[in-house]
Design goal:
- This protein is mainly α.
- The chain has a domain of 94 residues.
- The chain is 71% helix and 0% strand.
- The protein has ten helices and no strands.
- Helix 5 runs antiparallel to helix 6 and helix 8 runs antiparallel to helix 9.
- It is globular and about 50 Å long.
- The termini are far apart.
């Protein structure tokens, strides 16, 4: 058992090392075209934002904002909206997501808007946006229009739909959503969203 745990841990260690190397590359002045893609810059900006490095995350968003492709600029607006939401600037986040839609109605924009509606207590609007994400779930496998798999962004969707349904008093469907989410993330430890879903699913 101990051996199997070590083997299971190795891929996670490799991922951490690779992502660490990626952040170093992003901070370098000599970046390749590959590191300037949304598939690299958006996840890196999210990591920096959650580490309290909003200025560095904004710098990556600016790099996307200066690119020609509309969907790249849409992702810049999404990153800036996520930073605004982290800073409790809901109105600014809403405006930025509207600007993103004007450029390209990408899946992640709808997802972020749905999450924002849940957090703001606008549950009907949240259900509408998040169920639209579910219908467009195929887009979540390759969000950045390339071959980089992004299915991880879809994993939390059942939990957020459950939150929205619970807010509308739909306790049965909400519990089903929480259980589906927990089944996907049953091995996750120290995940706040998993802990929250467990607590909500256990309610009578």
């Amino acid at each position: 058992m101990l051996c199997s745990r070590r083997v299971a841990a190795r891929p996670r260690e490799r991922v951490r090392k690779l992502f660490g190397s990626l952040l170093v590359a992003l901070c370098s002045r000599k970046r390749s075209k590959w590191t300037a893609k949304p598939a690299t810059l958006v996840p890196a900006a999210r990591v920096l934002m959650r580490a309290g490095k909003a200025a560095e995350a904004r710098a990556l968003a600016t790099e996307l904002e200066n690119q020609l492709q509309k969907h790249n600029r849409a992702y810049a607006k999404i990153v800036l909206a996520e930073i605004a939401l982290e800073e409790k600037k809901v109105a600014a986040a809403t405006d930025l997501l509207a600007q993103a839609r004007a450029l390209s109605d990408v899946w992640l924009r709808r997802f972020d808007l749905g999450v924002m509606y849940v957090q703001a207590g606008h549950f009907s609007e949240a259900v509408s946006e998040l169920e639209a994400c579910e219908k467009r779930r195929g887009e979540a496998t390759a969000l950045f229009f390339d071959d980089v798999p992004t299915l991880r962004y879809l994993a939390t969707l059942p939990s957020w739909i459950g939150r929205a349904q619970e807010g509308l008093g739909m306790t049965g469907p909400a519990k089903t959503r929480y259980e589906a989410f927990l089944k996907l993330r049953q091995d996750a430890a120290g995940d706040a969203l998993v802990d929250d879903a467990r607590h909500r699913a256990a309610k009578p």
